[in-house]
Amino acid sequence: MTRLTDIEYLQLNKWHKFTYKLATFFLAIGPWFLSTGKAIGRFFKRCGIAIKDEVLDIIFTFVKGDWKTKVSYVVWGFGNAMRGQYLRAALFFIFEVLFILYMVFFGGMWFRKMFWPGTIGEVAVQEAWVEDPTGVIGMIKTKIYTDDSVQILLMGLLTFVFIFAAIATWRMNVKQNKILEEILASGKKIKSNKEDLRSLVDDQFHKTLLALPVLGIFFFTVVPTLFMILVAFTNYDFNHDGRENFFSWVGWDNFNALFTWGGGSSGSNMGATFGQILLWTLIWAFFATFTNYFLGMIVAMMINKKGIKLKKLWRGILVLSSAVPQFISLLYISNLFSDTGIVNGMIMAMGGERVRFWTDVEKSYIARILVIVINIWIGIPYLMLITSGVLMNIPADLYESAKIDGANAWQSLVKITVPYMFFVTGPYLLTSFTGNLNNFNVIYLLSGGGPNNPKLAYSSNGTSGVAGDTDLLITWLFKMAIGTSNDYKTASVIGIMIFIVVAFLSLVIYNLLPSNKNEEDFS
Hints:
The chain has 20 helices and four strands. By secondary structure, it is mainly alpha-helical. The chain folds into three domains: 6-63; 65-120 and 147-251, no CATH class; 270-517, MetI-like (MetI-like fold). A two-stranded antiparallel ribbon has the order 1-2. Strands 3-4 form a two-stranded antiparallel sheet. A hairpin with a 7-residue loop joins strand 1 and strand 2 (139-144).
């Protein structure tokens, strides 16, 4: 398709403009995927080059280095000690000693049990006679849990982390020797121990401040994420709890089960379930984001309009509705629309039939529409506050110029207000959309994911139970992990898929945001 110039595009009518934009969008998908693939390829190429450069630097440092540097390859910190940097030398050497002791007495054991043939664990539960702690009976038989697959998997992961940290520390030790040799060769002075300590509160103070937060992020965010990824490659569930019955490595079986379509066994329709819940998750996120956004904007424009009296009162009423804890509000509204709730009582009092808002599988669209409408009531006050601030900062001369040019109220809204709002609040829209993809509270507290649909698989380990028609991926994951099935393996796979979906959509939407593409338009 031939790309039109700006003048040629402006000469088109509305329908041709729409079809031209639509065709341009779909034609841009292929090149976008191609450029993304090339970017990924360039990333891995740079990684390969970086690894090659590091290996060559290590080899050349050993070949060209003096005997102090060569000894440092085995005894960490030796070169620093011989050149007067005793503090750094002590830290390197202590780390090496701790690493060796850990691997000899603990790390090797965790590795052996982690990769034990057949299961993650070596010795299963045993029975033994022990003394009765109450003293009523002399000896009682009890179970002794020798190994725990969960503990072994976690400690094995931490051992891998320790090994990578040791490799990075060893590389730093080698690089330090190279730098020290270059400093001495140039005739400059090496930092003393006092200067090293002083630098921690001076030119290296940023590293001192960031050390603790980075460690916290690593141990409380990165390690749990890596643990979840490892669980996705095991058969960890109710039938393999890790104590009574060890779980084991199963490779890609859990991913294959999630994308299996068909009918029959309890886990055979997991692919259909995943596809349907993913589709509803995207639909929910779209409507939950944009209904709140546009309706909040309209409410803000109505309140801010000239001539409206008691503006503070209307804003206060809306803000007051959001001041009540969401947990209480959602549970209360859920009970209002329950089968025996007030709403059904009023319907039946007027001669109507009971409406099963949360439990009617045949009319599940009622529950879906209802959660979207209730979410509007929850979200409008917050969006009203955000958009009010933005609307009051739109230059008034833009509207005056448009009015002089003959634009009506609708044209001013479409051509000035909405583009300006998208430009300023684009990043918020992105975070709101991704947040709604994982909006656990609204769905779980209102409908509990219901109405439960027997056609939707609950888990893949043969336990009973079904997913609901208003379940999001996050609520489905929760039910699968916390419910009677304890299907942790499939829940971990779904967690990985949620990350992939959210990351992909975030990247695509971010590149389409006006605030990213057209930064100069409203500057």
